[in-house]
Queue: 4 jobs
Job 1
Amino acid sequence: MKWIQRAYSLVLKLYPLAFQKRFGVEMEDVFHIGLVTARKQGVLIGFVLSELLRLPGSLLSVYVWTMREGAGKPVTVSNTVGGGTAGLNIPSEGWGSSLLSGLPHLLMGALVISSTLAGSRIFPALYVQAALYSAILLGVLIFCIVNGWKRWSASWIFYTFFVLLILLNLAMNSLSISISGENYRLYNLGQVLFFPLLLAYLLYRITCKDRMQGVLAAIPPMVIIWTYFLEFVPEAAKSLAWAGIFLLAFLASVLILRIKHILPALGLAMAVPLFGGIPFAYLGVNQGGTLPFIEPGPSLLEVIRQYLPFLVMTFAIVLGPQLAVKLRSIGIHTAKAGGKVYYRLVLGGIFLGFVYVLLQWINISSGTHLQSQLIQAILITAVILYVIGFALQLWAVNQSKSPAGDYSKMLELGLLFLPLLFMPLAIVLAFSLTMGNVKNWLVLMVEIGWVIASILVVRE
Amino acid sequence: MKNPGHLLPLREPTLYILLSLRGGEKHGYAILKEVYDLSEGKVQLSTGTLYGALYRLLDQGLIEQIEVEDRARGKKAYRLTHVGLEVFEAEVGRINHLLQSVKKQVHMIGDGQA
């Protein structure tokens, strides 16, 4: 009897930490009473089996509920109705959590640098290393879930998906699966379309729960994206560039958990590509394959011309979800006038805007010719949804009788309009500039203006 | 509180838990036992299933946890909130309506065949 009770106490450890704290003792008591009763009735084995068989379902439902509602998380003080914690009251975390937040960048840096230096020479070792990393990341992911999604866990999410993607590619290579024709088209659609959209949605959901977590979760993709510049760059130079940016990401993630305000956190996150991206752009232009085939060839001006728009695009990864959460908070404030529907229309428009950008990118980069009518229809729908959603949201704010004052919300909404609209456009323009199709410094100025406006809107 | 309709239909174990608590506050084990009795043995909750459901119902505000003096079976008990009662009654109304519709349809088919 005692060992069954002890085993049950151990099984309870599988539940999320917050759930254990709330119900653990009670569950042990209830189980004990059930055990004693079952023994008296001579159905002890049946009772234990019944508890065991229903355990997976119970665990699953508790985890699903915990993740869906954010229940069981340690309570953080929130002063935005949208659910995200705002800038002024976020408690700072201890050094242990801060280091855990930075650790994935060091691990991933080691993986990327060793695979860069190895090239294709020690392929099996690389395969083992990637498998080991995915096991670590998966283990951490489970640990994060069990511990109630502590703030540091946000740093690990992207890399978990990223390593799985690497593993998938390695597996496909080693299995000699031919990626050509229709297969390539599907493969490209899957990677270039599905993965960024999933990432955008995940970043938005994470930011909805906790804005600081949103900043942390955006750092890994802001690092990895610079790989764009590294084609044909020598391995040693590549490794140095990676070492620099991963080290910056580590430092920024550690420090972000030590501060309480959203604005310096954003500043730290944006400093990673701001400084870490320079070597990539320099190497791409001087030693790699990103230089457009035009005169006068590699120059400092060319480096800046490629670096700045790409940097703006990188900033969109961290600023976009923050802007979306601002809009969501206004939508929830004006729920009685339909705000919850209208803000979703706006975000739906932006999401379709991303789909448009990515499909265009697939057409350009892979030579795949997706139906242009379909792509145009997506763009038109995106714009219609966006404009109508915004107009209705404006109307909802006007109708709402919120004690906080409608004027300030109208102003906030007005300020949000352009930065949100430019989120997919920032990507289009960045690519156009980087590809050398547009040589308009005015467009670049608009993009930089977008970054400044976005920071002003999301700073509180 | 939103329209209680958005939580409907309730799952069978949830309905029985609310039904059990409608009779007054109860400890975890008492709920477990009463659900078994009320459902005539058809719904047999495990400890994990029960507390998973209580966790969800507490978060939804349908029930609340209260401190009680009876230490023999833990210090906590659960009771239905006003919102919980509303949801329960809405579900009973929904089931009644469904039953009436079915009866009516069956009756009409029966008449037609006769």
Note: The beta strands of chain B are 63-67, 76-80.
Job 2
Amino acid sequence: VPTPTGYHHVEDVMGMAISIDVHDDVTGTPGLDEVITWLHHVDATFSPYRLDSAVSRLGLGELTLDEVDTEVAEVLIACERLRVETGGAFDAFSVPAPNGSHLDPSGYVKGWAVQRAADLLEAAGLRDLCINAGGDIVVRGGPRPDPAWRVGLRSPSDPNRVVAVIEATGGLAVATSATYERGAHIVDPRTGQPAGSGLASLTVLGADLGVVDAYATAAFVVGDGGLDWVADRPDVDGVAIDWEGHLQVTASCGAVPGGGRWRLLRPADLDMAPSRRGQEHGETRGRHP
Amino acid sequence: VVDGAVYQNRWGNVQVEATFDASGSLVAVDAIQTPDDRSKSVWINDQAVPRLDAEALQVQSADIHTVSGATYTSTDYRRSLQSAIDAARDAQLTNLA
């Protein structure tokens, strides 16, 4: 049995448990301190729950754009671009925020911050890593000794089950927008189903977690045509799950800019995964002379 | 690695990539999507594909590294599948030490 390598840490920050899983063969926890410092810095700067954050003070008119760090301006520009691109289905500027203002870029900030956290780990010399921030994920490299990351997509009806698996190598970002209580959203009077389509969850795959997170939010709000909207975006794909666990997809496999590759598996396919077969039969993978 | 011809299936244009080892034996075949000619999304449940709920994994047998779902809080995390996966990973690494 191959020896597991790397380190694992869960950080409670930004209201979430962020799981940082490194598989590189390293001693200690290279990159971890930098990532933890970064995530807490993002929370202090962007949290709409903290009245003293730059974003809260900006939203409440206590600061102007000239007075905030360029990273804040950079995030707000990205949010505005996403608002236009999604026809307002993603909007950081008009939804009531916890601080009483109408500025809440959280829906982009979380993914943006985690994407940068993965970059920080790579800068520390790591390449095989996974960060899961409350269900939104960045993977890089592979989960050695396994050849590919397997990302389960949660069943809408059972938190302990997955109905599909994304197998990924290289770099991939995965974000899901969902409601897991039937009828929790507005009912569509034409169908009697939850607004839009009766979709329970919508997952978007791509290179950048900030972007796919915002896309997932927007496409889920759009409802019926949401996944077709995803299909029309360059460089991203999507998987929707309905209440019966049926899958709707834009593709069954794909490549993302930066070298990442992915394919969709049904859970039953996992029994055929080479790593598991090899372990069960005590074999070494590959050909023998 | 040899790329095959592009063909059309229900998901759009697909190309098959074959990988051979040094002795010329086929070791892997992967479907790769050609990115610039995309079709609209399709439902993939039909008679040819069994209902997925019946096949859904349970946590005990989950051969997965992580789980994507609606954003959960740090309070929800304790009861989540992700925390179970994390605990299993921690146990692996602890046994190593």
Note: The longest strand of chain A covers residues 162-169.
Job 3
Amino acid sequence: MAVPDVKTSKGVSTINEPIYPIPRQMELDARKVALGKRLFHETRLSGDNSTACASCHDLGKAGTDQLPRSIGIDGRLGTVNAPTVFNSGFNFKQFWDGRADTLEAQIDGPIHNPREMGSNWPDILRKLEQDPGYAATFASLYGRGIRPDHVKDAIATFERSLITPNSRFDKFLRGDGAAITAEEREGYLLFKSLGCVACHQGVSVGGNMFQTFGVMADYFADRGGPTAADLGRFNVTGQEPDRYRFKVPSLRNVDRTAPYFHDGSATTLEQAVTVMARYQLGRTLARADVDRVVKFLRTLTGEYDGRSL
Amino acid sequence: MKLVRSMKPLLGAAIFFLLTVLFVKTQTVDPETHNAIVTNLDELKRLDAVLDQEILEARFSQLSHYDPLVASLAELRAGHHRLKAGPYAIYRRGQADIDRRVEAYEQMLGRKELLLEQFKSANALLENSLRYFPAAIAQAREDHIGSSHAAVLSGLLLDTLIYNLSASAELRPKILVAIDSLEAVRRRSPRAAAAVDNVIAHARVIMRTKDEVDGLVGELISLPSSQRADEIYRAYNAYYERQVHRGYVYRFYLYVVSVVLLAYVAHIVLKLHRDIAERKRVEAALRASEEQYRALVEGSIQGIAIHRELIVLFANRAWAAMFGYGTPEEVVGLDLRTTLATHEVARVEAYKDARLRGEAAPPRYEFEAVRRDGIAMRVEVVASVVSWRGEQAILGTYFDVTERRQAEAALRNSEEQIRQLQKLEAVGRLAGGIAHDFNNLLTIIRGRAHILHGLVEGSERQRKQVEVIAKTSQRAAVLTAQLLAFSRKQILQPKVLDLNALVGNMEDMLQRLIGEDVDLLFVSGAKLGRVKADPSQLEQVVMNLAVNARDAMPRGGRLTLETGDIELDEQYARQHVGVQPGRYVMLAVSDSGIGMDAATRARIFEPFFTTKPAGKGTGLGLATVYGIVKQSGGNIWVYSEPGQGTTFKIYLPQVEAAVDELEPSEPSAAPQRGGEHILLVEDEDELGDLVREVLEGHGYIVLQARHPADAVTMAERHPGPIHLLVTDVVMPEMSGPQLAASLASSRPAMRVLYMSGYTDDAIVHHGVLDPGTPFVQKPFTPEVLARKVREVLDTEPPEASAQRRGGRRRPPVAP
């Protein structure tokens, strides 16, 4: 779990703040990152060589496809909204229902999912072995013979490199009072006082716990058209308390990752904040408060490769 | 044994395998791994405690976010993963036990994670409601729900907050009552419905989630994660210690097996060492045995040969040398028949055949052999049948007995010599005894005849008769003298002399003696050594030999006299009885006469043995020669073969001294007379009377004693001087010299003249007269006696004589 040094971050300016900055860089093997990046964009990982990881987690689109639900091979529609791959290394578990403990374990999901990449390891490895470039690179990094673990390790290492430091809010947390506006600051205070921060906290502003969708009201009844994916973590554990329970998503770069929720039902931040307040907090927010919270959320957009997402 | 030997490498491999197994068994968990495992377990416990603390912090809003919880759980997961993967190097049962416990820990961890996630979800709701609750209460109060209800709201807020912080359910009914009353207010006053609804909703969330959260916290905290870790640690440690202990045990076994192996190796090395030493010892013994055999056989001075069918198979160096060959190798294959004298071949072959057939054959016999160089020899062989390289052969030990046989012959010869010597000795003693008595008789006869001759005057016929008596007695005296000489009883007066001079002086006389038909040749040796002998006796020897030679050459021939120095060695001494080794002077007398045979040779020196016609010789000539030579300390040998002539060789011991001057023979003048008093002692009355008469006849006054006691008495009684004592030497009671000694004190001026015809008396020692002793030899004639008496009386008195010994005697002076 690529959680940054939490213990020490407690003692700096972020003391007692529920959110702390993303580290500016990660200590990773650059060669593995490079290989992983290539694999991440490799369409041969899919059964029909049409789909790569990057197909749904477009780095140019803040690591998402900006669709309510993703389109896999043969144009099949996915069951949930694709979460961003940025900062996914900070997530305590992967997938909306947290069924994968690690990024490496997560890879098996889309690879085999017939709605996503629809492939299998023997096919993938054969394709990679046939490519002299891959064979040589793998051999130099992992020794002879490409194994699934090697592919996963390379991709996961690359994904861990996908962090977005230097957001305006992180600069504010690091002591730059002018990094955010007064209004944005008020939005942050509202974010805390309203209770959002009860779930959206930590380095990723989320991504470190599960929570039931619809605590104060029945979201799914109100929305209608229930799906199997709506059961959330219940699909993994079969435990009744886990019904409708999902991984709390990170709010980092949330301004760039619309649409929102597992079902991609909220297309704007205002919409998402309003839904959250109603179903999670049992509150109806004033329009101004919604705007302030949204303004705060937009300060969470960081940089990748030196550029803002 | 063979099986055991073939087992040995197998045994070695087994021991090696056992050692390897034991060595592997001693390898316990390496300390680094052990430390890593123990540290990891400690770390798990520590992380667990941290997580529990973080849960409590989160529960009471002390934690601003859940990342620490996530991180702690991840670390626990990682620790558990290490625990699962960790190599325990514990034997199977222990590993299974540990695995089971790790599995239990994992289940516990899974449970913990599940609870933790539920805790986080519930706690977030609780936190959210608690955070919002005061605001919701305030909102409701602002909405004018009435002062009576304000107190309810305030009470509810307070109770809820306290209830949240308390572990007790005491406030729960009260809060529920308050919620119920608010429900009533909501129904009565729709205007405040929204605000009150909010309060009610969040109060219900708090009531619900508070219990849930506390329940989860309680369950989380009470999860036996630390105990599970401890159990793993205890189980692991027990197995670890067992493993370590087992390591000690195996190390001990390893030590024991190593010691055993080491001992075995040491045993092998020692055994090898002993074997080598033993082999060396055996080799040395073999070599020594071989050397002994070689020394025995090769070094033996006896000839050793092994032959089959008389063909030599092996012979030692001594055998080869004995038969005239250079090396033992040369004689291998030699036919022994070629070494046999021709007449021996049949006999030796017969022995050999009999021996091989196992029949009787002399084990030891002698035969005549011929050396390779043709020299004949006498060989004795001891033969036996042996096995040589698996076949029968004959082993013979050969002795060259040639010399032994010769020595035996020589010994037999010596024995003959001794026998002859003893015979001559016996005859000599007999002759000597007779001669002694004859001397006295002859002295009387000759004396009386002499006197009678003087008395018979006128009658020519009577005188002739007396002259015959005198002549015959003269011949008898000569005969007696010869007998004495032969028996070595005559009295010698030896001088140191040069034999060349003595023989040389005799040459003319000898030539006359042997006649004209015989040539005389004198070969004198140069620088001849001196001898000590009685010259007149020696002349007698030469003369007798010359006469003997002449008689052996009736038709003439040559007489050779030869002198020379010679050294007789030990070997010569051994072969010749009675000879002492040393330097001698040889006198050889050889003739070219008829020679003699062995029988004659054997008896040649016997007295009265003669080959001459009866009456031609006395048979005493060579006996006399023998006696004189022997008495002079010399030896005489005769070499002769019939027809080859005869050689007599005389050896006289050399002396290192100057030649004595020979006294010129005194002129034979008429005896001088005297008037002195003479004491005569002679136990033979007839002889005594004769001597007295002769002396009185010459004017002397004679006191005659019949024996020494009378003489002593007479000397005491006689008033006047006694000028001379004339005495016999051998007498009963007292010898002549004893008598002279007893009278010497009372009559110191008295001279002494001894009469003797015999050597075994007091004045002669070993046949030699004591120097300076006045002496007249029996049988003597009256003239000789008278002359001797005068001579003694004319010498200086004994005292003066003693003082002037060695000085020339004064010529006789008439009184």
Note: Chain B is about 60% helix and 15% strand.
Job 4
Amino acid sequence: LGLERKLSAEEQQVVRAWLRGLNPACEEIYLSICRVADADEFPGRARLIGHCIRELRIRLLAHFVGEQKDPVDYPAKLRAIAKRLELEGVITIDPAANAETPAETPITIGSDTATMIRELIGKSEAKTAKLVDQMAELLRRIRLESDGPESNLKTIAADFKTVTETQGIAHSPKTDAELIDKDFIARLAAFEGYLHNFATARRFVARLETLDDILDEANRPAS
Amino acid sequence: MTSWTKPTDPQVDEAVRQLIDGGHYAYFFDGLKNPLWIEPLRARGFFTEPPGLIKDDEAGTVTLPKWPESGYLARMAPEAPDLVLSIINALPETENSRVQEDLVDALLRMPANKAASALPRVLEWTDSRYRFRLQDKLGELAVHLTRADSAGSALKLAKAILAIRGSRFAEGRSNHDEWEYGQFLEKYLPGLVGSEPLEAFGLVNNLLRDAIEVRKEGRDYSFIWRPAIERHEQNMGHSIEDHLIDAVVTTAQDILSADPDMIHAVLGDLRRHNLPLFLRLELFILRDFGRLAPSDTERRLRDRALFDNPALKHEYAGLLAAQYANLPSPTREQIAGWVLEGPDPSDWCAAVEKQQGAAPSEEDVRAYKSHWQRDRMAWFGEALPSEMAAQYEALVQEFGAPDHPDFASYSRGVTWGPNSPKTEEELRAMQPGELLAFMKDWEPASGWRNSDSRVGLGRAFEAVVTGDPARFAAHGAAFRELHPAYPGHLFSGLAKSKWSDRAWDWGPVFDLLEWVVLQEEETSAPTDDVLEHTWRTTKLEAVRLLDAALRNNGLEFDDRKRVWTVLEKLSSHPDPTAEDLTEWATTEPWTQSLNTVRGEAFHTIMQYSLWCHRNLGTEEQAKGFGSLPEVREVLDSHLNLERESAPAVRSVYGQFFPWLHLIDKEWAAANAATVFPKSVDLQVYWYAAWGSYILFVSPYDDVLSVLRDEYRFACERLDNLPEEWERRDLASRLAEHLMIYFWRGKLSDQPGRELLSKFWQTAPARTRGQAIRFLGNTLEDRSVELSAERLEQLQTLWADRISAQTEDKAEELSYFGSWFASGRFPAAWSLPKLRETIAQSRALKDREDVLGALPSTAPAEPLLTAQALRDLIDISKEPWAIDYKEDEIKQTLALLSTSGNEQAIELARECVDVLASRGYLSFRNALSGAASSSASRPGN
């Protein structure tokens, strides 16, 4: 049996047409999600869907905001820090080294090394913040008119980031049976919902009707 | 209270994910009524980042963006006060007073005790620079806080709002600031007084003291800028200090009316401030409430220092009149005694002696004492003791009624215009001989203000002459005996009379004119009255009389010689002199020409020439200046700069050039280059002649061929537009001249095309734009016929301007809106041109007219119209552009929706989407058959 889907076939067509307009490869990736999700049986589909979601996110960002520049080479940075720590005697990588007794003066991390660690943490945090900013920019460019209020965008961008943060799923050692749960279905629905919202972002009046339905529901007094 | 449904997480997530567009975001928060959504929305990151101010330094604007979230919080505050309060207290600081307004609204909607807990937060907003409605909201909140248990919150807020020393007034006060301050006190102070009367009274007193100290006048001069404590016509100002004085008075009155026992507390608070103004306030309060504090009243009235203090006069006198009868008998006698005894004149005598160099006479001293006593007696008003009544009457009899004796000085405002010793009616009733004798004998009294003057009499006489010129024209000779002012007024009166009914004899007037122009002008200093005629201005009136007569055919042609005799004499009058070559003379020579004798004489010589031309036979006319040798001689002679250096005179040549050409084409052609000299060192004369020509003359076809070089030279000068041109609008007038010639087809030949090309190359964008708008206005005037040839030329021009390679093209192109709006061009051609124009200019003047014209193009050209509408909406971010033409836009959309053109319908839908997203929800159903619900709930 296929997975529970949020979008109707017609809505999926709207999303596909929009993605095709951006880049046919994007449509392909979305089509992969649809095929894998709708198939009666498709081993490892949770991981595949996770990969596709991440891939689409990257491509959308690249299309609307641009390629990410100056990527941080974490392994290289970490190797450099480890080397310094070794030189300072904080850690030892050599198993033959004498470690029977500790030095009389406890060894502390040198200030340069501390700075390197702090900078790396900062870069990691900045990358996350930058990613939210980039996603906010993505949303800003997708909407009907790019100017207008900004304060809503960061909140939604943070949510979009959470929804599309599927690295853990894509690289999970778990099986589909363990991965595909209520949250997974909700995440897929949220992602598809976003794609549909993006695809129809310029249909302001039509989308008001969706909001009217949400408001009707929200404003209904308790029975 | 409504019982609400708690939202589920998926419900909230789904809603949030819809809010990418600013319009949807506002629509959702504007329409949300359920307070149970606050918490989950907050958990998702809302209610944390209010938008700040958006400053556009280039445009000099500040925008205060709306924050839909704060509007929702304000509405939810009655149902979830604690939650809303915690959000308000946790928000980062914001300068956006629009957000602050919402948050204050929220506080107003919750119980006062809860609202009071946000006071530290609110105090941050009282210094807001961009207050708008915030000021009122804060006032309402201050009054609301009076209901809180914790004492002082309301006054603490009021104190912060009204603080004089805060940063709010650090850079000065505008009139609006002062008005707003007064409004605030008037609206909200009574609410504060009601709850904490004495504290509120103390607050306004403190604020008033601060305001006085901030003035840094060294001492309290309030009796000058606020002569009366009560509202009085003598109080001219509406300053913050004035508003505070009013507030102190009304607060004291309210307190004492409600609780008379508060009198000592009220007086005590006033006495905390050691300034004369507060003493005046005390005297004023005691005037009405003195019976509540009789000993205080008595103490103040029997204080001789207060009695003698000129700064306290008004309030002391008011208190005396109101409370004298209630004073104990000895005090009454004491005060009456001061008055009856009279003043010590020694200081006054010393002052007079110092000023005049001699001690005043005994009579002067007696008069001084009498005036003093009369004025002090007047202070008592109705309470004047009977033993003084007879003396007071006698003093009034002798010296007249006192003149506002309770004011240190009394302002009567300004009387405009000079006064005449006799009214027009009185002068009209006099026989001419009697009137002339009166004018001969009457001398103005010395005095500098409000006294009758020769100018006043002269003007009244002038009006009488205008009404009945024949009565006085005949007496021209008699005016030789009078002050030169009166012949001047006679000439002026005659000039203004009805020329069509002229029935007076010029003979005596010419006699007088000829005599006047021969008079030596005074070399002594002019009279004190700058308005009074001198011989110079009387000669100016003489030439103006001739000018009026010539223009109105009010002379017999037989008098030609007599007219010329006067004009010839005045054409060499020294005014304007070489010394008059001031900045004004060089920047506005045409104005100077009308206010100088020689300049005006040249205007009149031009009228004389035309008058002669009209009266000469065809044969004589054909001879041009050959029939007017006297004129040619003067004109030629004054074109010689060694003979005539006044730009004012040269400006007259420019202003009358087409008529000089009319009279003598050869002379005009031969002298054009001299009249408009192009050499660099003579630019002041070129400017004088060209400026008056271009500003005051319409373009005549005949003249174009003679002045083509001059037009070209003027166009070349546009390249580096002199500041004066900018200021006097010379460039736009040049543009108009050229566009008129263009419209008439006079620039279709090669030289004409070159001239136009020069204009488009050199004119700045604004001038080019004005040329385009001028043509646009002509196009819009449907009474002006447009030939097919002209239409084609205009189309070529529009296309050329779009493809022109100039850096500042955007501004120029923005003026093409009126061309499209005129509806003169085929829609299939003009719509694409409009789009190209918008694409390059990104702005359009007359945009509303363009929007208004689209319903007429939609049926025939739906797609082009839809594209143009989309473009226009794109550049119409300011709300008014849409507001003004909402109906026409809807009409266009409706036409597009039924056009059957799918692309046009799709674009129309996009237009509706964009408009709705900007908050114009009334467009939601603008497309008939569009799938949308009938109601547009939030924001509607």
Note: The radius of gyration of chain B is 40 Å.
